[in-house]
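Researcher: Sequence recovery benchmark, item below. Answer with residues only.
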């Protein structure tokens, strides 16, 4: 299982607030344990969830630094101001259970 937490928001996000969580138990997103879902973020998150659940390798995937191997970092595709009215969300992902 993976816990994907909203780590930081650059700008304003209409969906997430810092600390919100998404819980993934492949192939399911556990909706009763998930605070919010955004279609802009899902395209990035789902790209990595299957591989990270089967083979936790965020350093090899370039999703973290060698001194932080317990976490993988991703961001949504919304570039934020001045291009959109939204904001970029940085997610921190870790394995749970």
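Model:
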């Amino acid at each position: 299982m993976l816990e994907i937490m909203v780590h930081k928001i650059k700008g304003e996000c209409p969906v997430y607030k810092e600390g919100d969580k998404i819980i993934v138990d492949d192939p399911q997103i556990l909706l009763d344990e998930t605070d919010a879902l955004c279609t802009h973020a899902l395209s990035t998150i789902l790209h990595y969830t299957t591989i990270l659940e089967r083979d936790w390798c965020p350093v090899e995937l370039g999703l973290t630094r060698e001194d932080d191997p317990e976490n993988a970092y991703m961001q949504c595709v919304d570039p934020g101001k001045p291009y959109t009215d939204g904001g970029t969300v940085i997610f921190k992902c870790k394995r749970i259970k």
